[in-house]
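Justification of resources, computational component.

The compute hours requested in this renewal are based largely on the per-chain cost of generating structure records like the one below. Each record pairs the submitted sequence with a full structure-token output. That output is archived, and it is also reused by downstream analysis tasks.
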Amino acid sequence: MDHIARSVRVNRMVVSPDNGDLYVIDAGDSNSQPRLLHIDAHTGAILHENALNFVHWNLALARIPQAFIPHGNLRAASCAR
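The structure output for this chain reads:
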């Protein structure tokens, strides 16, 4: 990849293990909120983006064993206090 768009203000970045994808937290500016960007590492194209709340964000990649990934119809439940 030659560059990331000038409009992207990189706060945090991680690279996928195969070097094909970048995951970037775009810090935004005073007129825009932060975004999580999925970028093609070879072309620089933004493949997907999600708006983030104005809070402190961090980013990491992990290899999660298949047995730990939930499948099926799941619903979050609150914790008992």
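The chain has a mean pLDDT of 81. The first strand starts at residue 10 and ends at 15.
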